[in-house]
Amino acid sequence: MTECTLCAGNARAESELPPRERVRMTENWRVIAHRSALPGWMLVVPRRHVESLADLTELEAAELGTLLRAGTRTLVDAVGADRSYVMQFSEGIRHLHFSLVPRMADLPADRRGAKVGAYNAQDTPLGEEERDQIALSLQSRWP
């Protein structure tokens, strides 16, 4: 079995992770500034390996709602998002993860809804330094 890249990050101490890999950390979840071309795109990842929403514990499930709400508030405050998209596919990486995506007021029509994935599939992703700067901004505004 190929090593799970999300589990590899989860196994590292918080102090060893760059800001982009630890926007927010709780006992059960880690929030990452995603390697996307869209600034503010975050991944919300359980800290244990789980492949399905159905396999979350009650505590993990309850905390997920709180994180998604706080993350959305953060996107409004940090990057000026009009609202957010929440998506969960877990196809590329078989580790449950949620995309929390800023829906900007000026988002082009051809990038709205499910088409927002073009920022990952077609565009050059942000560099690590820029992701770290965005992560620090998100951290400073997290409620």
Topology:
Elements: H1 5-10, E1 24-25, E2 29-33, E3 42-46, H2 58-79, E4 83-87, E5 98-103, H3 118-121, H4 128-141
Antiparallel strand pairs: 1-2, 2-3, 3-5, 4-5
Helix pairs in contact: 2-4
Domain HIT: 39-113
Region (Disordered): 118-143
Protein name: HIT family protein
Keywords:
143 residues, alpha+beta, 5-stranded antiparallel β-sheet, 4 helices, HIT family protein, HIT-like_sf
Biggest sheet: strands side by side, in what order? 1-2-3-5-4
Instruction: Tell the overall outline.
Output: globular
SSE topology string: HEEEHEEHH
Count of helical regions = 4
Organism: Occultella gossypii
InterPro entries: HIT-like, HIT-like_sf
Region (Disordered): 118-143
Protein name: HIT family protein
Care to give the gist of this entry?
It contains four helices and five strands; from the N terminus they run H-E-E-E-H-E-E-H-H. It has 143 residues and is α+β, with helices and mostly antiparallel strands. Helix 2 (58-79) packs across helix 4.
Description:
It is a single chain. This protein has 143 residues and is of the alpha+beta class. 32% of the residues lie in helices and 16% in strands. The protein contains four helices and five strands, in the order αβββαββαα. A five-stranded antiparallel beta sheet has the order 1-2-3-5-4. Strand 1 (24-25) and strand 2 form a beta hairpin. The longest helix has 22 residues, at 58-79. The radius of gyration is 14 Å and the shape is globular.
